[in-house]
Amino acid sequence: MPVSAPNSAPAPTASSRATYAWLAALITAVPIIIFAANGTIITLGLCALAAPAWPGCRDALRQVIGTPPGLALCTLAVWIALSISWSAAPADSAITALRLLLLWLGGLAALAGARAYRLPRGAAGALLIAYSAILALYALEIASGGALISLIKQIDPDRFTQFPDAAQREAYRQLLAFNAIGRGGVLLVLLFWPVAALLIDRHPARGKTGLVLALLLGATIFVLLQLPVGAAPLALLAGLAAFGLAFAAPRRLPQFIAIAAAALLLLMPLIAYKIDRPEAFGVEKRSIPPSWQHRIEIWHYTANRITEKPLTGWGFDGARHIDAKATQFVAELPDGSDIAYPNVTLLPLHPHNGALQIWLELGLPGALITAALLLALGFGIAALPLPTSQRAAATAAFTATLCLILLSFGLWQNWWQASFWLLLILFGLASQPTRSRDETDAHPGPPDR
Q: Largest CB tally within 10 Å, which of 38, 41, 98, 287?
């Protein structure tokens, strides 16, 4: 242990430097989430680089891979590699698979690091400040009409000469600006729960902690309602419901959610095929907003294409090559007329539904492996030796993530995959006991494994 000068703070030990590096890596997510959500991969990479010394991390990595979710993930990786051979564009699929593999390895290394070190004291406060800073920056952007993101992305209203009126040009600028910062809203939904778990665990005083969480929740809901991300508020509400119910059934609820999610995954092609005409459920299709009509048509079209190759699928990342912009989407309007949106097809780059994407690209084996992964995650949450409040937060995050996977984004997008790993990393950190300064000084190295 290094000797410090009188009246000076003790020099940081190896392990304290590592844990502070973790916090520094995670704090990089503050501007990234708002202004460049695609850059969450940068935060994940920094977390992987901030992992403890490789020998200790290597042992922890083996432990993670040896768990049921780790084994399911490895099996899925093998099937993905095999499916590249029958993909429509094997070279493109192989590049995407390589990126995905590197992401998974980085995520596993970072998660192993989260299991290897304890958090320093004050970590909950640091993450609370980071989350609050995200909300504050969002509030600033909302109040200013997206001024900062317009400056970053050079969204100048004078460029939109198709609108003769200055007010129209400004309205279009704000539309583009809010679309640019909207994607981070789904990350807010995911990150709320590990922050809540840390606060409840580190500061169990119910009155003050409950008030802080209520304020955070209210601010998060306000921000989400201002952003063009319709799935995010729905996912947050689903997470809140799961959080409340988990206190009554802390172990059975995550198991039930996992079983329901696995069943929904296996049945999703049939469900998607049946919802083409919502009139069968008593809902006039013309009364549904065009964006949701489009989603329904995408799912129905995808279900039809799944039936062509149900066993093998179309190959990893093959969704983008199936339609090739050949089918036009036509929306039905309330007045009885129809409208065709230019360049809007029935299968864009992905089906906007993770379950259908698994079926479409990886077929029945991929669906079965993914169902096993969901079961392993749900039953793993139920088996964690955690307080009920932390398990409830993990169940809420699991539920919210499933909602978002079923409604938005391509499953293999780098930033989306990175966000899953960041969520696991934060919960991995939240489940570790706090390391005090005295304990850190007495045990400067990584714990034995």
A: 41
